[in-house]
Design a protein that fits this description.
Multidrug-efflux Transporter 1 Regulator Bmrr, Chain A; elongated; alpha+beta; 274 residues; Arc Repressor Mutant, subunit A
């Protein structure tokens, strides 16, 4: 079963119980970083954000079905007080819990359970295990939240338009994902190894280490689902444990940036073997 399906199953079958990222990660046998990255890439939600939304949806349904004890509903939803529950409920649905109880006809959008994926997983070939020295990438960066990568293509265009400011034309360029949060958000930098630092450019240090290198061949538009598949089952299927350090895409001479076709290497950092 893919990793994200295991997480969904754990959440849905233990929704009324105390759940933490550490507990869920332990139950699905991966580290917290791996779980959060996989879940956000496939669903667009953070693990705990989804859990809170599902608990509030269940609470709203209980109140609509006639449950009168709002304190008990709040406790079941994981809130320590009626006030905290009311604030969260109102922020999610735009109405207070009491309004749901008193209204005869009130509807609003609630988080439904995410269906476990019934489609055949994207096959992921075994990665090459390589080491890489530490290096620095200079380019332009943006924050990626809620799996919204709409700004990334423009980031590459900005970098290409000012390429001459970075030095000689590079034989390879890099897309670096770093500063991941437990919500699954991260920062992304498009750039190259360069001693120069043009105005507005940013830098990120990629540490030395062992990496699992997955190779994508085809159009760049197919890269996001390939990335999600790597984290959902590609890493786990090969018994690998990712590290909480920057991961990167490497674009070499065999990638056609104009047409968007070619070979892209995805370098996933690995935790030290124990």
């Amino acid at each position: 079963m893919p990793l994200v399906d295991k997480v969904i199953w754990q959440i849905e079958t233990h929704l009324d119980e105390p759940l933490t990222l550490e507990l869920l990660a332990d139950r699905v046998c991966v580290n917290v970083h791996h779980m959060c990255r996989a879940f956000q890439l496939r669903t667009g939600h953070s693990v705990m954000g989804y859990t809170r939304a599902r608990r509030l949806a269940k609470a709203a349904q209980a109140i609509a079905d006639g449950e009168r004890d709002l304190i008990q509903v709040a406790l079941t939803a994981g809130y320590g007080s009626h006030a905290a529950f009311t604030r969260a409920f109102s922020a999610a649905f735009g109405v207070a819990p009491s309004a749901v109880r008193e209204a005869e006809d009130l509807t609003f959008d609630m988080m439904e359970p995410i269906a476990m994926d019934q489609t055949k997983p994207i096959p992921i070939a075994a990665p090459e295990i390589r080491t890489h020295d530490a290096f620095r990438v200079t380019g332009f960066a943006t924050d990626v939240k809620n799996r919204d990568i709409a700004a990334v293509p423009g980031l590459w265009q900005q970098f290409a338009a000012r390429l001459d400011e970075f030095g000689p034309y590079p034989s390879e360029t890099f897309g670096v994902s770093f500063a991941m949060t437990e919500d699954g958000d991260f920062s992304y930098l498009a750039g190259m190894q360069s001693a120069a630092q043009p105005k507005g450019a940013a830098q990120v240090e990629v540490p030395a280490g062992r990496y699992a290198v997955f190779t994508h061949k085809g159009h760049i538009a197919d890269l996001p689902p390939f990335y999600a598949a790597i984290w959902d089952h590609g890493v786990s299927d090969h018994g690998l444990t990712p590290a909480y350090t920057p991961e990167f895409e490497r674009y070499g001479d065999d990638f056609d940036a104009i047409k968007g076709y070619g070979r892209v290497e995805i370098w996933i950092p690995l935790a030290d073997a124990t």
